[in-house]
Amino acid sequence: FLANSCNNIKNIYFDLQRNDLKSIPGFVERFANDLKLKFPFLNILNAANILAKLRTIKDSLEIEKISKAISITNEGIKSILKNLKPGMFEYQAESYFDQSIKYNGATNFAFRTIAASGNNATCLHYSDNNCIMKDGDLVLFDLGAAYENYHADISRTFPINGKFTDRQKQLYNIVLDGQKHAMSHSKPGVTTREINAELIKYYQKALKEIGLITEDSEVSKYYYHGVSHHLGLDTHDMCEQVALVPGCVISCEPGLYIAEENIGIRIEDDLLITEDGCINLSKDIIRTVEEIERFMSK
Ligand code: GLY
Ligand code: MN
Ligand code: MN
Questions:
Q1: Ligand nearest the Cα atom of residue 140
Q2: What is the DSSP letter of 275?
């Protein structure tokens, strides 16, 4: 806009907390200062809080777009599963996802895909994806398509050879039950921190029962991230730091990472908070041990 067309404009708002702007050191400050010099009669205001409020609750069109991103992601996961076998590089498995989501109309990736086999899955931000996947190991995929700027964020963990060992199955089902437990607490009035606290309580009991830990505090050795974040225009979306309300979309992503056994498991789904609980928007994506083994045996 031009200075001489600003007669009626007093305030100008910028989202000074945008992730892409924050990643360029000093950009936001320089931009605001330049603007102030050129247009001293304008108040430069931060829109971050206003936008966070707007972005915390999704309308039906936004939910449609997130759902479309999830269904494209689902096709990509099935394409990986159809082709997964021991001896492939992690990036080769990843490439089936890339091809499929592009084919199915994704407008972008939500974030850099994690394809982490064996011990690599115990490193939360592994994305080198350049190791050979070994017979007998698990592989953890954390991936998502973006559709018209809205993101999906899904994790699934598969046995590379198509069959879980008894131990892998035992641990996988602990994470899956943990996810059900976390989902049952994902409802209006609850904070994401409280959902995580519930999950930790569940792990304290479940991991003692199988003899993996003896003290409650040892859970943090095997589970070391939060269970939920808001999701939308960003994979980690802006939000008001308040309890959940209907219309929030959050991830539900319990994990277990046991480096001494070369096992990392995460199961991540995307939930829409409703009046009295939540709907799992990604419920159609293959999830249980039985579903996975059946699909992989075809
Ligand atoms: N893919 C990033 C996350 O799960 O938060
Ligand atoms: Mn994820
Ligand atoms: Mn996530």
A1: 2
A2: S
- Closest ligand relative to 125 C-alpha: 1
- Is 235 touching ligand 1 by the criterion CB < 6 Å? yes
pLDDT digits (tens, 9 = 90+) for 93-132: 999 999 999 999 999 999 999 999 999 999 999 999 999 9
The alpha-helical segments, DSSP class H, found in 160-285 are: 166-184, 192-209, 219-222
Q: What are phi and psi of 155, to 5 degrees?
A: -125, 140
Q: Is the minimum distance from the CB of 253 to ligand 1 under 6 angstroms? A: yes
Q: Is the pLDDT of residue 1 over 60?
A: no
Exposure string over 70-89, b if 16+ CB within 10 A, otherwise e = bbbbbbbbbbbbeebebebe
- CA 34 to chain centroid: 36
Distances, alpha carbon 62 to alpha carbons 106, 276, 280, in Å: 15, 20, 15
- Confidence (pTM): 0.93
pLDDT in tens, 144-164: 999 999 999 999 999 999 999
User: Mutation test of ligand 1: which of 234, 251, 269, 270 has the most ligand atoms closer than 8 Å to its C-beta?
Assistant: 251
